[in-house]
Amino acid sequence: MPTSPSEPSDPYDLAVIGAGPAGLAAAVTAADLGLSCALLDAGPRPGGQYYRHPAPGLGAAHPERLHHGWSAFAALSRRLDAHTRAGRIRYLTDHQVWTAERGEVWTLHATLGPAADDRAVVRARAVLLATGAYERQLPFPGWTLPGVVTAGGAQAMLKAGLVLPGRRIVVAGSGPLLLAAASSLVSAGAEVPVVVEATSYLGYAKGLGTLAANPAKLVEGAQHGAKLLRYGVRLRRGSAVVEAHGTDRVTGVTVARLDRDWRPVPGTERRIACDAVAIGHGLLPQIELATELGAETRETPDGTVALRVDGGLRTSLPGLWAAGETCGVGGADLAIAEGELAARTIAGKPVPAALRARRDRRRAFAELMAAAHRPGPGWTDWLRADTDVCRCEEVPAGRIREAVEVLGAGDARTVKLLTRAGMGWCQGRMCGPAVACLAKDAVPRADSRPLACPVPLSQLARADLTD
Ligand SMILES: Cc1cc2nc3c(=O)[nH]c(=O)nc-3n(C[C@H](O)[C@H](O)[C@H](O)COP(=O)(O)OP(=O)(O)OC[C@H]3O[C@@H](n4cnc5c(N)ncnc54)[C@H](O)[C@@H]3O)c2cc1C
């Protein structure tokens, strides 16, 4: 059952939005340091994207077996329980924040569902944005076929639903999530004939010092690699899935070698039979709540946009902090370190040197990883004129190219106005990066919307917004 709406008269010292690794670590650290804290999350249980739980009805006996680092989550969870029982943290499940209002005291508006009373207002002197990330999609012919899922989606199906997207699954795209996903899929009984990685991994060679400073990351990569070897999974580097085949469902893919710019090399195509594809091209920080208020952003080395923060994880807006993927995608360890660090600066406490060093090492690794997996501009050569780019509004690549080349659209927003690409249910979360590439947007732009999620009109009408 969702927690009931609340409008306490005294503001909290801190409201944390997101109960993933970053938000959890921040909330329990802040409570340890004596701050009163509200922890809001859109989901029913803590853990975020990384520590996903099987639905209770599935009766999973050992959910930890699907995770790396479960003990870190278990420790955070125990601290959350203790602080919640002692009244130092108010943990508000199923609360999706749709807008934040600035002021000396911040006001967060959250929806709990479609009924008119299912809403809450939380006031706090400081806010920490720990809303994580969502997946970047690069379309290709056949990507809308049933059986084609994202790499994170495959992980989510397995961790939350204990189901596989298919029996013979091609894992493809670029980034470390591919190895993690393939490793989980084979452990759960799927056949993975091949992992198709678009880069050569050579980008990591530019940061040998950073690699050496992060041995845990190397061990994690080696563990995934060893498991894939044991299960006979081939790794094909410098290649991409350029087409998925099938009518009612995917039955195979075409894989081609790529040149340095990710253009398919003619004559290198190979067909591989499968009944599912798990495809991932990295993650996009979810920062609309802050960008809508004008928070400054930075371009990350993989071409996405993250919040600009200082050494204490303060954003450019007084009273607003950020931690984890909202500062740039980097994984659960980094998110936990940043949550702790942000909580300490919010509480006005010094940051221990060891914590700062851990965070800086992990952040440096994240930047190296992002640079190594930045998509090349030639990926748009995979698209045919009839390939849907915006799947909500069914806008094909040909219409977007026409808007750019014939009608003169020079950015994603103009393309959207001319074609409806990005106007559908997902509000451009799926097609946004692809449309921006096709529109040749010079600078990646952060999404900015007055509402971070769909909100019933009845709740909007009763929201009592000050601006
Ligand atoms: C689909 C997916 C699958 C992934 N799978 C893996 C994996 O298998 N292995 C791996 O190493 N990494 C994986 N990652 C990356 C990993 O999850 C992150 O590195 C890590 O969880 C970052 O922690 P975080 O706290 O910054 O964000 P998250 O864990 O994403 O937590 C963010 C939290 O914020 C909440 N939230 C978001 N918006 C709102 C809002 N408006 N109001 C209220 N709550 C909100 C969400 O419900 C979520 O609980 C995955 C990421 C995604 C997106």
Question: What does this protein structure show overall?
Answer:
With 467 residues, the chain is of the alpha/beta class. It is 30% helix and 21% strand. A hairpin with a 4-residue loop joins strand 4 and strand 5. Helix 1 packs parallel to helix 8 and helix 4 crosses helix 6. The longest helix has 20 residues. The N terminus is likely disordered. The site of flavin-adenine dinucleotide (FAD) has 36 residues, from helix 1, strand 4, strand 7, helix 3 and helix 4.
Q: Nutshell version of this structure?
A:
The chain is 30% helix and 21% strand.
Please give the structural blueprint.
Blueprint: E1 12-17, H1 21-32, E2 37-40, H2 70-85, E3 89-92, E4 96-101, E5 106-111, E6 119-129, E7 133-135, E8 148-150, H3 151-161, E9 169-173, H4 177-187, E10 194-197, H5 208-212, H6 215-230, E11 234-237, E12 239-246, E13 250-257, E14 270-273, E15 276-280, E16 283-285, H7 288-291, E17 297-299, E18 305-307, E19 320-322, H8 332-346, H9 353-372, E20 388-390, E21 395-396, H10 397-405, H11 412-419, H12 432-438, H13 457-461
Parallel strand pairs: 1-2, 1-6, 2-3, 6-19, 8-15, 9-10, 9-15, 10-11
Antiparallel strand pairs: 4-5, 5-6, 7-16, 12-13, 13-14, 17-18, 20-21
Helix pairs in contact: 1-2, 1-8, 3-4, 4-6, 8-9, 10-11
Bound molecules: flavin-adenine dinucleotide.
Flavin-adenine dinucleotide is lined by residues 17-23, 40-43, 48-50, 96-97, 130-135, 152, 155-156, 177, 180, 283, 286, 324-325, 331-332, 335, 452-453.
